[in-house]
Amino acid sequence: MELKVSTRSHAGYAVVAITGEIDLYTAPRLQQEFTRLLQDRPGRVVIDMSLVEFCDSTGMNVLLSALKRIKEQGGELDVAAPRPAVRKILQVTGLDSVFTVHEEVPQEFLITEGS
Fold first, then answer.
1. Virtual CA dihedral for 54, 59, 64, 66, nearest 10 degrees?
2. In what residue span(s) does the STAS domain sit (predicted)?
3. Domain 6-102 is of which CATH architecture?
4. DSSP string of the chain?
5. 105 and which of 27, 35, 43, 80 could share a cystine (Cβ 3.0–4.6 Å)?
6. Greatest extent of the chain over all pairs of C-alpha atoms, in Å
7. pTM for the model
C-alpha cells in the first residue's frame, strides 16, 4: 500500500497527515518529510494518524527519531487520532507514555482553507 504524507504549516506549528501503511518500505518517505519539516523548526508538530492502517517498528522508529529531533530544537510532537491497531502498538511498546496522544487532532491545529 502506498504512503501519502501531507504537511500543513501555520503560525509556528504543523500538522502532518499520514495515509496508508508505515512499514520498512514506506518509512523512508515519512523520514524525508520529517527531515524537510524540521528544517523549518516548527514549535509544535501534530501527526494526524487517523488514516494510518498499519505501523510497524520501522515506522515507530521514524516517529521516535522525529520526536527526539524536535525536542532538541525545543519543540513538541504529538500523535493524534491513531486507529485501534496503531493505538495497540503504542500501548504494547509503551510509546503511549512517550508521545502525547490525542483522540483527535486538537481544534487549535485544524487548519481551514484560507487561514
1. -110
2. 3-115
3. 2-Layer Sandwich (3.30)
4. ---EEEEEEETTEEEEEEEEEESTTTHHHHHHHHHHHHTT--SEEEEEEEEEEEE-HHHHHHHHHHHHHHHHTT-EEEEE---HHHHHHHHHHTGGGTSEEESS--GGGPPPTT-
5. 80
6. 40
7. 0.90
